[in-house]
Amino acid sequence: MTKMYYNGDINEAVLQGKKIAVIGYGSQGHAHAQNLKESGFDVVVGVRAGKSFDQAVEDGLQAASVKEAAELADVVMILLPDERQKAVYEAEIKPYLTAGKALVFAHGFNIHFDQIVPPADVDVFLVAPKGPGHLVRRTYESGAGVPALFAVYQDATGQAKDVALAYAKAIGSARAGVLETTFKEETETDLFGEQAVLCGGLTALVKAGFETLVEAGYQPELAYFETMHELKLIVDLMYEGGMTGMRYSISDTAEWGDFVSGPRVVDAATKERMKDILTDIQQGKFAKEWIQENENDRPNYRRIKEDETTHQIEEVGAKLREMMPFVQATKSPKKEVVASGTN
Ligand SMILES: NC(=O)C1=CN([C@@H]2O[C@H](COP(=O)(O)OP(=O)(O)OC[C@H]3O[C@@H](n4cnc5c(N)ncnc54)[C@H](OP(=O)(O)O)[C@@H]3O)[C@@H](O)[C@H]2O)C=CC1
Ligand SMILES: CC[C@](O)(C(C)=O)C(=O)O
Ligand SMILES: [Mg+2]
Ligand SMILES: [Mg+2]
């Protein structure tokens, strides 16, 4: 059985007295910075002037430029978009990464795919929450937490593992469970999960279901309730009680349909394509293409995002959600809905 770390297993004193720079104030950044501060740690947010900077100040945090924060800090957590990290690291973080500091990530992409090569005399580790940043914050506030992985890539001080665990505890993850991995395992499984299941697989499944109903002449609003809105209610049951728990609450008719029709939708051929996706990730093909897409200023990303944002399910859903005030849109310093643009 994998060793899981919980609050009682972790001594956070090793992080006390250290200055922690959270670089970036987006989805993960705002959650880490606020959770760390409320857990009693000394945080500075490193951001460029603009919306994120203003938001960090409004949220009562110390804010500074990336350079200033990197210089001030003992522990530098990089929570910028993966594709921007290399440039910002080279220009604004590396010069201030003196011996004995810690360079930290929430995803191993840039280390694993050799985009960032840190100096040998610093600690390098990751603390990767297994959930969206807005939920890292929301669960922390409610007394719960999002599980996290940690991995040590370089241990220059002999303390990297203890500091990583203390960090995971400080953001609330050790309330849920923290487990050790490697940069390779975290990077490959995270990319696979988000592409094949959590984001790519799920949105493709929902769109295909919605389109099937609408093309067959059913009302789009009904199709939205059936294939998107109710999904959360079903997934909540799986979150709480696994598939068995969910199946306890659905009708036997639904359960029988689940058993016989589910495998017609996701079959052996789907699993073969999942394996192809995993191979592309493992061999670095996905990373190479994503880096190239950014170097080309994201022509395909912009085009696909425009199509996705204007899909009928999004237009119908937006109107229906306006009528359900209890369904809150994510409020964040990140991700206002943009049809194009790089963030
Ligand atoms: N999103 C998530 O829930 C998860 C993310 N991760 C990992 O966490 C890391 C951060 O991801 P995420 O939170 O999604 O990132 P975001 O896209 O939310 O980061 C946006 C932040 O980065 C800032 N930023 C962007 N470019 C620059 C720049 N050139 N200089 C300074 N600041 C800049 C933005 O500032 P401005 O407002 O000025 O543009 C904003 O504050 C990634 O490694 C990701 O893989 C891991 C687990 C889950
Ligand atoms: C599922 C997407 C994710 O990996 C995450 C929220 O964990 C991400 O990179 O945002
Ligand atoms: Mg993830
Ligand atoms: Mg990810």
UniProtKB/TrEMBL annotation:
Belongs to the ketol-acid reductoisomerase family. Involved in the biosynthesis of branched-chain amino acids (BCAA). Catalyzes an alkyl-migration followed by a ketol-acid reduction of (S)-2-acetolactate (S2AL) to yield (R)-2,3-dihydroxy-isovalerate. In the isomerase reaction, S2AL is rearranged via a Mg-dependent methyl migration to produce 3-hydroxy-3-methyl-2-ketobutyrate (HMKB). In the reductase reaction, this 2-ketoacid undergoes a metal-dependent reduction by NADPH to yield (R)-2,3-dihydroxy-isovalerate. Mg(2+) 1 binds at D190, E194. Binds 2 magnesium ions per subunit. Mg(2+) 2 binds at D190, E226, E230. It catalyses: (2R)-2,3-dihydroxy-3-methylbutanoate + NADP(+) = (2S)-2-acetolactate + NADPH + H(+); (2R,3R)-2,3-dihydroxy-3-methylpentanoate + NADP(+) = (S)-2-ethyl-2-hydroxy-3-oxobutanoate + NADPH + H(+). Pathway: Amino-acid biosynthesis; L-isoleucine biosynthesis; L-isoleucine from 2-oxobutanoate: step 2/4; Amino-acid biosynthesis; L-valine biosynthesis; L-valine from pyruvate: step 2/4. NADP(+) binds at Y25, G26, S27, Q28, R48, S52, G133. The keyword Lyase does not apply. InterPro entries: 6-PGluconate_DH-like_C_sf, KARI, KARI_C, KARI_N, KARI_prok, NAD(P)-bd_dom_sf. Substrate binds at S251. Its EC number is 1.1.1.86. It comes from the Bacteria. The lineage of its organism: Bacteria, Bacillati, Bacillota, Bacilli, Bacillales. Residues 2-181 form the KARI N-terminal Rossmann domain. It is an enzyme of class 1 (oxidoreductase). PANTHER family: KETOL-ACID REDUCTOISOMERASE, MITOCHONDRIAL. Residues 182-327 form the KARI C-terminal knotted domain. Its cofactor is Mg(2+). One of its GO terms (molecular function) is ketol-acid reductoisomerase activity. The active site is at H107. Keywords: Amino-acid biosynthesis, Branched-chain amino acid biosynthesis, Magnesium, Metal-binding, NADP, Oxidoreductase. This is Ketol-acid reductoisomerase (NADP(+)).
